[in-house]
Write a structure and sequence with these properties.
mainly alpha
Length: about 290
């Protein structure tokens, strides 16, 4: 048994994307924003640790269900043909057992929080499972991903404040717009392959308007964040972070000016820094406050 696990370990690591932490980071940044805002700069360390662990576990579980849904099409896409389920490096049975184990771990973590957090987490799990299958039926799967990748925000507010205030949903909206923007860059990287195999995405739906719509979405996101900062009278560091994120947005537009697949993927990856500078500005402002 141990030898089998050791043999399959590289495939399990790739299945959970532990070798590519970008998705986890993009999921983590808005959760941290929510924790620091809900905790007014001093969130309960235990809750922070639980939320970080839960984010990591559910990101891994989400990757598994995504690869399960895409196992018959990933082999036709250059960037994904070597994924464990598409290549046969792991069986579907092994992958789904790991998925169930991760969901149980996530459930145990969320039960360390309050009742409202548990209720919200049920909805989060449902959306995470639904998302990968929407690519078959709509050109707007990124809209579903936006919900799935934003659910850490209401869970964080519920865990700390035991309610879901208006600020929570404003932050949710800001993050939602950002996710649809950066996942459209991701879809632009696969657009040629997706057109051949019939996978739908906002990149295909938006066509030549893709970069303009992304720019609008990121602008909306940053304006909402600025409104939250102004309404909370948060310090100037937060607005410097927002300005830095705007600079990264401009850089991403420059990167994708030729819509080359590799450049679109680099723009997607660059959003890690977009999220990071906003969080750094938020933390510094709340400390000063």
């Amino acid at each position: 048994m141990i030898s089998v696990l050791a043999r399959d370990a590289p495939a399990y690591i790739r299945l959970m994307r532990l070798d590519r932490p970008i998705g986890m980071l993009l999921l983590l940044w808005p959760t941290l924003w929510a924790l620091w805002l809900a905790g007014d700069g001093q969130p309960d360390p235990t809750i922070v640790l639980i939320m970080i662990a839960g984010t990591m576990v559910m990101r891994a579980a989400g990757c598994i269900i995504n690869d399960y849904a895409d196992r018959k099409i990933d082999g036709h896409v250059a960037r994904t043909r070597d994924r464990p389920l598409a290549s046969g490096a792991l069986s579907v049975r092994k992958a789904m057992i790991l998925f169930l184990v991760l969901v149980l771990v996530a459930w145990w973590l969320v039960t360390r929080l309050n009742t409202l957090s548990i209720i919200v987490s049920f909805f989060a799990l449902a959306v995470a499972v639904l998302y990968p299958f929407t690519k078959r039926f709509t050109h707007l799967p990124q809209l579903v991903l936006g919900v799935a990748f934003s659910m850490g925000i209401p869970i964080a507010y519920a865990a700390i404040t035991e309610e879901l205030p208006a600020e929570c949903w404003l932050l949710f909206a800001a993050n939602y717009a950002w996710i649809v923007a950066y996942d459209t860059y991701y879809a632009m990287a696969d657009r040629d392959d997706d057109l051949l195999i019939g996978v739908k995405s906002t990149a295909i739906l938006f066509g030549k308007a893709d970069r303009s719509i992304i720019l609008i979405l990121q602008a909306v996101s940053l304006l909402i964040l600025a409104y939250i900062g102004a309404s909370r009278a948060i310090g100037w560091h937060f607005f410097v972070g927002i300005a830095a994120a705007a600079a990264f947005s401009a850089y991403q537009q420059y990167l994708t000016r030729d819509r080359v697949s590799e450049h679109c993927f680099r723009a997607f990856l660059n959003n890690n820094w977009y999220g990071a500078v906003i969080h750094c500005g938020l933390v510094l402002s709340l400390i000063e406050k």
